[in-house]
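During the first year of the project, the team set up a workflow for recording each protein of interest as an amino acid sequence followed immediately by a discrete structure-token representation. This format lets reviewers and collaborators read both layers of information side by side without switching files. As required by the reporting guidelines, we include two representative entries from the current panel. The first entry is reproduced here exactly as it appears in our internal archive.
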Amino acid sequence: LISIKGKPACRTTSKHYSQYRNYFVVIAFSTIIPLIIIGIFGFLTYRQLHAIDSDQHTVVVVHRRSARLSHLTKQITNMILVQIMIVLCCETPFAVVQIYTCATKHMSKSALQQAEEQLIQMVVVTCNYSTFASSFYCYYVASKRFRKQTIEVLTLCPWHRKNQPLSSSSETTGNILNQQLLTQI
């Protein structure tokens, strides 16, 4: 914590720590390493999906349960693949902008160029934040079972039910909700 123009501000005072943070923490830990890990696991998931698909064609399914399990496995794998593609598409521009920002940090830029870079950075950061919300929408679109469960949960929400008086003073609202959930499952 240092004072800049009489106001307290958090700034890095060590040049070495600043370089470590900019080049290693921001670029490596925030962008490149996660993209590599997601890419590797995406490839492995894709390979597993093809292995499941080829096993399904060669083995005659005897039990209905194993066919259902195979369908669920394939559906989950597809949802994960879609999620990985969304993350890669949203994280890659963020990584490029972070690398560009660090590489051109000490260059002199016009006010117009700075404004353009800030606009691009804000758009990319907004896209980057969308990855955290995308999993819900990805699963909702890709899975009929997930859609059905989401609708069931939303219809069980307390604000959709009318107020009901308690039958005895010893019962708590939590016990009533637990009993209602158990009876509907």
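The second entry, processed by the same pipeline in the following quarter, appears below.
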Amino acid sequence: MEPFSIIKNVLKFVLIGIAVKWGFGYLVGSFWIWLQDS
């Protein structure tokens, strides 16, 4: 396995992790705002 593909895999995992965290935070934030409104 050449170093480049290892770096690509690491970047992919980091990007997925960031996307999941942002998506989860957005969902929780929207739910919280909805709770405050009602």
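For the second entry, the following points were noted during internal review. The CA atoms of residues 20 and 32 lie 18 Å apart. The chain has a mean pLDDT of 93. Both points are flagged for discussion at the upcoming steering committee meeting.
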